Amino acid sequence: MNKMFTFFTAPVTALFYPPVYQDAAKSNAGRGVLYCLYLAGLTTVLVLILLSVKLMPHADAFAQWTQSNMPVLIWTPAGLSLENGKTTATLVHPQYGTIALFDMTKTAATEADMGKAYFLVTSQKVFIKRAPGQIEARDITGAGMRPTQQLPPRVRIDGTTAMTMYQNVKSAMSFVVPLLVLISSFVFFMAASLFYSLAGLLFNLMRTEKLGYGAILNLACFAITAAFTLSWLKTLIPGQTLAWPFSVNVLINLVYLFAAFKITDQKRNEA
């Protein structure tokens, strides 16, 4: 029970509670690997909370605005046209400015043509401004799409269509994003722990009671908690403006790792 307590409370107690490291030093390397997976799971939950609180309300509001303001387009294998018979239209957001220009008379586009717009839609191509001076063109005709299935002869694209596409992407991302965050976080924490375990090998030489590499890796896995917890507190506390370079995180973790080796050296402590 004690080892379970020090494991699951470690994201907080590893900052001040020596038994967290004492239990880690007595366990095999699997404890450290599982702890990195645990931190990755916490990271995934925290990232999803941030996305749901800070990003998704803006994305949902933008999608609803697009649904109400997007001009109706007709797509055929030959390309696009505006349903109202006009050749030009503009999609301007009250906060973000010009989002897209629609000009069915153009066949090419320059940065000057796009102005401040992010997209320029013509009858056969969509021009995307990736960066200043960098414009990407995509063929939207039937020939340019090269579908695996036969395309319909006519598609009406309006705000409702855009909202449906947004909802489909949102549903897919609700599965993909957590999985990607979990995997990438776990790989990052394991790589960081392996890196700090190299310093642990040096700290181990200073001990009276030497540890095997599995215990060293465990201590490294738990020692990275300090920078992990402090970084998330800095991110989650409203109005927090305190910032520090990545090198400070490295230093904090090394200090905790060195302290972990000292407090778990039983023979030195007994002497």
Q: Could you say which overall geometry the principal axes of the C-alpha atoms support?
A: elongated
Tally of helical runs: 11
H/E series: HHHHEEEEHEEEHEHHHHH
- The rounded Rg comes to 27 Å
Q: Mean of the pLDDT scores?
A: 90
The structural class is alpha+beta
Low-confidence stretches: none
Main beta-sheet strand count, sense and barrel state: 5 strands, mixed
Helix content: 55-70%
With strands numbered from the N-terminus, the spatial order across the biggest sheet is 3-4-5-6-7
**Gap between N and C termini:** 29 Å
The total count of strands amounts to 8
Strand content: 5-15%
Protein architecture, described:
The chain has 271 residues and is α+β, with helices and mostly antiparallel strands. 59% of the residues lie in helices and 15% in strands. The protein is built from 11 helices and 8 strands. The strands form 2 sheets. A 5-stranded mixed β-sheet has the order 3-4-5-6-7. Strands 2-1-8 form a 3-stranded antiparallel β-sheet. The longest helix is centred in the C-terminal third of the chain and has 46 residues, at 159-204. The two termini are 29 Å apart. The model has no long low-confidence stretch (mean pLDDT 90).
Identify the notable features of this structure and list them briefly.
single chain; 271 residues; alpha+beta; five-stranded mixed sheet; 11 helices; 8 strands
